[in-house]
Amino acid sequence: MKVNLQDNFSISKLVIGCMRMNEWNFSIEQRVEFVEWCIEQGITTFDHADIYGGNHHNEALFGEVLKMKTQLRDEMEIITKCSMCVRNDENPNIKTRYFNTDREYIINQVNKSIEKLNCDYIDLLLIHMHDLLVNPKELNDTLNQLRDEGKVRYFGLSNHNPLEFDTLQKYVDVKFVTHQIMLHPLGIENYKNGTMTHCLKEGIHPMFWSPLAGGRIFNPTNALEENMKNVLEGIRQELHLEEIDEVIYKWLLMHSSDPTIVLGTGNRERIKRAIHSLEGMQMTREQWYKILIEAGYKLW
């Protein structure tokens, strides 16, 4: 259940996304037990961002786990992200959301993440969103500094298009080892804009966030969503699967870029179904294309 992103660096095929950890209402004991359970299942990678929960709050919730069980740090990979500036208790004067990749800002955010997560380093740092005012040469100096200081081991991008990705990679010495993007049967923009083909071209293993469209898959609110639910249900029956989320996971994982999936849930039954989707019968090409076409992709 591992995907090799770089020599000597792998992450688990399924990743626990911690964006809503504050909404799970887990006690510290429950959080520790949950993290231990995930690791026992082979899910060793945990995805964070500085803005999750506000003021690094969700990173702090996770950091309490590592403070209580320090030995867990050596059994996991920690991902976090920065570049999104939003209004919160720490930044009450922000009126408009914006992106920031200035050197001082990124270093400050990484230091805060390390402190909140109660660890000595970040395994993988992602630039959360593309900053139109980015200075690529300054970004290169920033990432080199973080690497040389031992604060970040590997780097990647999130939510960049192919041109944005290639432009930054041209100026940056470190190799971006992954690209975290949104992909689900109600949102296939990254197939339409060539991002998935770009990942294949560059040998990048993408990470898919929001695989279940934030729950809209299960509770459709319009004709497109209702139709997609029916399509997924039909394929579920053909594959003899328990729930339609297993169909979605199989669909996402079928791409030959060997992607990973970020599961934004603390629900163990859903996590178990995601694990189960890695095994057993795979869908046919016809079934795969059926979902893509119903999502709005024009083959010709």
UniProtKB/TrEMBL annotation:
Enzyme Commission number(s)? 1.-.-.-
Q: Which UniProt keywords apply?
A: Oxidoreductase
Which Pfam family is one of those matched by this entry? Answer: Aldo_ket_red
The UniProt GO MF terms for this protein read: oxidoreductase activity
How would you classify this enzyme at the top EC level? Answer: oxidoreductase
Name the SUPFAM superfamilies for this protein. NAD(P)-linked oxidoreductase (SSF51430)
* Name of the protein in its database record: Aldo/keto reductase family oxidoreductase
Question: Would you say which domain of life the source belongs to?
Answer: Bacteria
UniProt-listed InterPro entries: AKR_Detox_Biosynth (IPR050523), NAD(P)_OxRdtase_dom_sf (IPR036812), NADP_OxRdtase_dom (IPR023210)
